[in-house]
User: What shape does this take?
Amino acid sequence: MSGNQPNTVAVIGGGTMGLGIAQVFRFAGSRVILCDADEPASHTAKRDLAARTERQVRAGLRPDTHLAAAADVDVVFPATAAVADADVVIEAVPEVMALKQDLLRDISHATRPDAVIATNTSSYPIDQLAEQVRLPDRFLGWHWFAPPEWVPCVEVIRGPDTSGDVVTRSKDILTGVGKRPAEVANAPGFVANRLQMAMFAEAVRCVEEGVASPAEIDEIISGSVGFRLPHYGPFAIADMAGLDTYVSVYECLRDAYGDRFTPPQRLRDLVAEGRHGTKNGHGFADYTPDDQDRLLSERDARYAAMNDFVRGLDRG
Assistant: This one.
């Protein structure tokens, strides 16, 4: 491994996620070894990677040099051979617990002891997967999001035995290839899917109740909640909107739809303490008058730029 950049990365799994992850590391300069379920499938995955890259180059999303880089990905089968010389091993097979456990057991016995082993799982507890891993101190979760070559966030999930050094190395590696790693606890669904599934459940309920169609809900989310999320997370947005307002909205929804909309206790406590957000300088964060002016000016500039960008896409 040279600095934060791994010399060799083995990606086990040639589906949508594995191919996107392979692109990220290959185009950052690492040697990438690709392995799928069998030898023919592994070679098919390499052809799919080349076609995916060519399509992106034609669309102007990548430079022409990436075509040669994609063609230079190595195919090695079986997985135990593919991981033998890797600095980083990324398991990206389908979300089937037994499949992941069996594979992790096999590859952890075939890797170098100093190799980082990461599982790309959307929801499985890392402690259950770690049970099958030899030297589990170098094992952890890297939850990428589809399509992984473009989405910047990767959730980094520490297992019960993961060393602090491996967590730090993981964050450095991911930052080095242009990602934004965020460490989360080993909880079911981690963070992003827990939030995403909660929102999607309400979206489906709105359709079932005849409140709006799927197309209308997509328009509402992309033009309201989604419009703001590229710039700010839910806590900053709540502080700018007003935590006391949030409590009032929760109470209205709870009265209409039941206890699933009961205001969270932490939110109620903050409002009871007089922490209403940016408007009085205290919310989930604290704001000086200069902070308030700077944040709201930044918000206006970002939202105006986003509005212009979206309108340009619509015209295009």
User: Anything to note?
Assistant: The first helix runs from residue 16 to 27. The two ends are 44 Å apart (CA to CA). The chain has a mean pLDDT of 96. The beta strands are 8-12, 31-35, 74-75, 88-91, 116-119, 139-143, 153-158, 180-184.
